C-alpha cells in the first residue's frame, strides 16, 4: 500500500470489527488494508475468491488480521449470508464499507445505453447498495450501533459529464439512498455516510481508447488540481468517516474530486 499518501494512525480501529465489500481489488482493497493497519479485524467480501485471498495475504503480510468471504451483493440471499458470515467470524460488526461499483457504456448518451449495461449498473450500484445497507443495519442493531460508509461518485449527485448519464443516475441513487438511511437509522446508533470520489487513478477513469498519458493531459485541463486522485486519498476519507473522529457526522456525502464539483 502506498502509505506515503496517507497517515497511518495505529490503534484508531483497535478491537474494531470491519466488513469491506468489494475488498478484492481497487479502492476496497486499499480500504481493507488501511483498516487492518490501524487495528481492525477485517472481513473482505466480493465475487472472486482469488482476489479476496490476495487481499488477505497482503493484510497478513503487514501484520494485520483478515478473512475472506465470497458473495454477490446483487443477490438478496447472498447479501444476508455475507453479513451473517461476517458477524459469525468477527462476533459482530462495528464498521462496514461498501466499495462495490461498476461502470458500463462509458461515452454513450442516455438514449444509446444498452439495456444490459443499464440493468447491470442498477443491480451492482443501486440494488447492491440497498441490500448491503439493509443487512448491515440489521446486524448493527443487534450489537448497539456502528458506522457505515458507501461509495458514490461526484458524477450524478454533484456534476454532469456527457456520455456518463446512466452511470451518474445510479450513483445519484446511491447518494440519496445513503442519506435517507442515515436519517432512518440514526436513533439506533448507526452512523451512515457516503464518499463521492471524482476521477481516480484506476482503469475506470480512462475513457474508451484513451491511454494513461492522454488521460493525464485531459485531467490537467479539466481538474482544478490538474490530476486524478489516488485510492489512498479516498481511503483516508473513508476511515475518517468510519472513526470516532466523525462521531457528529451523519448523512454526509463527502466529495473528493480535486475541486471539480466546487
From TrEMBL:
PROSITE patterns recorded: ADH_SHORT
Q: Which InterPro entries match?
A: KR_dom, NAD(P)-bd_dom_sf, Sc_DH/Rdtase_CS, SDR_fam
Family label: Belongs to the short-chain dehydrogenases/reductases (SDR) family.
Q: What is the protein's name according to its record?
A: NAD(P)-dependent dehydrogenase (Short-subunit alcohol dehydrogenase family)
* Species of origin: Allostreptomyces psammosilenae
Which superkingdom does the taxonomy of this entry point to?
Bacteria
Gene Ontology molecular functions: oxidoreductase activity
Asked whether the UniProt record includes Ribonucleoprotein among its keywords, one would answer no
Alphabetized SMART domains for the sequence: PKS_KR
Q: Where is the Ketoreductase domain?
A: 16-222
Keywords in alphabetical order: Oxidoreductase
Amino acid at each position: 500500500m502506498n502509505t506515503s499518501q496517507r497517515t497511518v494512525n495505529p490503534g484508531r480501529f483497535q478491537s474494531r470489527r470491519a466488513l469491506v465489500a468489494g475488498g478484492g481489488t481497487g479502492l476496497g482493497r486499499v480500504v481493507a488494508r488501511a483498516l487492518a493497519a490501524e487495528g481492525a479485524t477485517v472481513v473482505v467480501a466480493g465475487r472472486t475468491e482469488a482476489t479476496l485471498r490476495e487481499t488477505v495475504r497482503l493484510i497478513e503480510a503487514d501484520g494485520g488480521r483478515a478473512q475472506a468471504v465470497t458473495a454477490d451483493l446483487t443477490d438478496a440471499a447472498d447479501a444476508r449470508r455475507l453479513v451473517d458470515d461476517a458477524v459469525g467470524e468477527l462476533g459482530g460488526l462495528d464498521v462496514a464499507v461498501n466499495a462495490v461499483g461498476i461502470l458500463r457504456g462509458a461515452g454513450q448518451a442516455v438514449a444509446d445505453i444498452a439495456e444490459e449495461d443499464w440493468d447491470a449498473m442498477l443491480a451492482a450500484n443501486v440494488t447492491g447498495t440497498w441490500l448491503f445497507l439493509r443487512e448491515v443495519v440489521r446486524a448493527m442493531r443487534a450489537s448497539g450501533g456502528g458506522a457505515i460508509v458507501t461509495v458514490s461518485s461526484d458524477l450524478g449527485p454533484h456534476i454532469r459529464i456527457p456520455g456518463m448519464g446512466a452511470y451518474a443516475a445510479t450513483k445519484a441513487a446511491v447518494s440519496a439512498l445513503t442519506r435517507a438511511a442515515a436519517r432512518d437509522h440514526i436513533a439506533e446508533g448507526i452512523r451512515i455516510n457516503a464518499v463521492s470520489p471524482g476521477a481516480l487513478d484506476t482503469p475506470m477513469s480512462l475513457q474508451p481508447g484513451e491511454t494513461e498519458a492522454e488521460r493525464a493531459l485531459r485531467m490537467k485541463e479539466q481538474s482544478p488540481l490538474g490530476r486524478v486522485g489516488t485510492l489512498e486519498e479516498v481511503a483516508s476519507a473513508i476511515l475518517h468517516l468510519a472513526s470516532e473522529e466523525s462521531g457528529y457526522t451523519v448523512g454526509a456525502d463527502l466529495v473528493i474530486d480535486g475541486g471539480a464539483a466546487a
